[in-house]
Design goal:
homodimer, 320 residues, Rossmann fold, Isopropylmalate Dehydrogenase, 17% strand
Chain lengths: 320, 320
């Protein structure tokens, strides 16, 4: 993450984090990094007899953490989520528990964090040599989103951009060409989403597509489109059409372009951090930073109304 | 392209190339590079009154090239393709003519280069720091290939691998996860293609999938799969599920990982090179190198039988 995001998160002051089944070495290291940096206070759930020895071996002090002893992963996830739902913490981080176990708890009607929105995965990349952070969605949750789901995926990504201080993010709907080929359903959807943005049905951002990756993010690529795109060359948010596209772009940015990465699940009433084992310690810490910024932002713009209903409600004026 | 590919192409000696509507500065530069390197002799089609001044300004000698004067792009493309079809040249390179104009001529029943195979785009990347060339398909032609089309896309990519001297290429069917999620149609298709490979229905290679990009190409990623994949960590060929996936991976490799690139259309009886204006002079030259190697290889293994019929014909033995 850019230094600026870290400074913003530090300004917010320590936020409260729960960890679902915390007995994972790499997750605990990242949590301790965040604690020592003054970014979080954490509640760890899991079996105490597993947690304490591991914390000891990592040089973590029991006194610095609240520990909630739970018998198994499902209980750990439920308790980690319940504490956020009850207002005792601001966000939940997946530890050793499976993502599906955590999401099951997040979606629970009693103790969960439902906000009547689609949950989607939002990733933020810091690509060496590229002048701005790139926000990408959805590389990890929705497999083949429909047009209506894409609207909500955009909306969730825009909330993250706002949390990062980007007031009116430029959203590129990625495609394999910059013209609308009626034989390419994703390009057709991109055109529809662009028009919805122009009509004010998608707010807080400007959406344009179809755009190829180079046209979206570099002035060189965007130059070809000249004045015919408000996004080309300067995109903040990249919307992919499938989980496969997102995973490919994500992996190639990490592996071949050595990009930094942070990610979380958006659409619940609080941030849900589902870092994977393969993510680096730095990625995990950066994801916590992102969670802090989103948590702070959601205090101001709580997910109260279901955005899709708002978006699709006709607001055509008949009296003009 | 790796030095080895260039040496192989130089060993083959000059091959004969036609250029469809050659009056394009960047295409002519690449053709002249190839001519000076002893790789090609070229026949240029197009309006002579356009071509000669441009060649002059680029320092190209009229005496080094055969020029076929044609009135318009369609005639230029037809003539460039006809000369290959008639055995007067070995491959065709798109100049200023549109890709669709060239493909229209390639698919013409009278003068074209049909081989009863699916045409697909095959790209070859030389990624800095990665130890081997990566062959990828299809990033530019088939929008959303069916399972049967994927079989032919694999087959065409395997022919390119063989042309590059890779005897038994490892083919990864890319996905967003390394396990088969029945809710993900592309992962399901990957499993089917793997089994077809194991049954000998896809030949000259070993196919495995679903594989994420990192599991496919790095030992680190592939380590997770241990002995459960013959491809993981060492893939030669990457099969994407859609033109969008291919375009994204291609663009991110070029833009962010600074990869070298060559590409051509495979499945016709001779190589068809459709470089784009945006491709660098080096990419255009490398594509010609690739065309030379494929052309040489096709002399030995001419596309005679339609591979899909061969592949899908039951060879189950009832007498055993």
């Amino acid at each position: 993450m850019h230094q600026r995001a870290k400074e913003l998160a530090a300004d917010v002051g320590p936020r409260r984090l729960t960890v679902a089944q915390a007995a994972d070495e790499h997750v605990l290291e990242a949590v301790d990094d965040a604690f020592r940096a003054g970014l979080v206070r954490a509640i760890l759930t899991g079996r105490k007899d597993e947690l304490l020895p591991l914390m000891g071996s990592l040089g973590m002090s029991e006194a610095d953490y609240r520990i909630v002893d739970t018998p198994d992963p499902a209980h750990a996830a439920r308790e980690a989520v319940r504490l956020v739902s009850a207002g005792e913490a601001d966000m939940v981080l997946k530890g050793k528990a499976h993502t599906s176990t955590v999401l099951h708890a997040v979606l629970d009607k009693q103790i969960g964090l439902r906000a009547r929105r689609l949950l989607s995965h939002v990733a933020v990349y810091d690509v060496p040599g590229h002048p701005k952070l790139l926000i990408m969605s959805d590389p990890g949750m929705n497999i083949a989103p429909t047009l209506q789901e894409k609207i909500q995926i955009i909306d969730n990504a825009v909330v993250v951009a706002h949390a990062l201080g980007i007031e009116r993010p430029k959203v590129a709907i990625l495609s394999a060409a910059d013209t609308v080929n009626p034989a390419m359903p994703h390009a057709v959807e991109a055109a529809v989403l662009s028009k919805m943005s122009q009509r004010g049905q998608i707010r807080g951002c400007v959406v344009d597509g179809p755009l190829t990756l180079d046209a979206a993010v570099t002035y060189e690529g965007g130059d070809i489109l000249g004045s015919r795109s408000d996004v080309a060359g300067d995109a903040d948010i990249l919307i992919v059409n499938s989980i496969e596209e997102g995973n490919l772009l994500s992996k190639s940015l990490s592996m071949f372009a050595h990009a930094g990465f942070a990610g979380l699940i958006v659409g619940a009433s609080s941030p849900v951090l589902v870092v994977s084992r393969a993510d680096s310690r730095k990625s995990k810490l950066d994801s916590i930073v992102l969670g802090i910024l989103l948590s702070e932002h959601l205090k101001k713009v709580a997910f109260t109304a279901p955005p899709l209903e708002r978006i699709l409600t006709s607001e055509v004026r008949f009296d003009s």
